[in-house]
Amino acid sequence: MKRSALSLLELVVVLFVLVILAALVVPMVSTSVHDAELDATYATMSRLRDGIMGSAGQPGYFPDMKGLTIPGRDPDGIPRPDLVAVPPRHLIDLVTAPAGAPLFDPQTRRGWRGPYATQTGSSSLGVFVDSYQKGSPIVLQWPTPAQTPAGHQPHEFVRLVSFGADGQPSAGLATWDIRNLPAGTNPFGDDVVLYIRRDLPGMDWTNYWLIKQAMKAGL
Description:
Strand content: 5-15%
Number of domains: 1
Largest sheet: 4 strands, antiparallel
Oligomer: single chain
Distance between the termini: 54 Å
Shape: elongated
Number of strands: 6
Strand order of the largest sheet: 3-4-5-6
Low-confidence stretches: 82-88, 121-127
């Protein structure tokens, strides 16, 4: 007569194998989920950058608004308190015209002709949601004069920032002169940073790839 039931020892071996497989698979799945969320966040940030600067023949907020005088706003039409706690609402200017902004004039080629980006997330607040840190906004920041690299002006720089998977800003966010960072270093931790050189858009820089490499290395 053939035995059909597993012995206790065989059951223990099977359970042990399942535990080992779970220990291997769960981190891989978790990393894949975070990787997808990071990709979604960077895609949103790239879309916002294109709306800010313009791309492939599409209008951009900064080129359209440059030189216009709007009360309480910088020469590109965006509110300008000094860095750090810039509210996410400022990105709503990409979706609806800011108060006091003229509509686009084809002759002067100045004025608001948006929307420059499709809004996602909490539309009533003008928040562009970060997929990497669910519910956290992507914010727009300017450097203070003290943070501006020598030989440059604060108006040359702007950056989009996500506070990463932990939802907390890193101490490295005080860094603005990205040209002098040691190769391979990422002082921003898991904060996703997309720099936009307003005078030289082709010199944009992001640490998105550094975070991706850290994920693959299991750091």
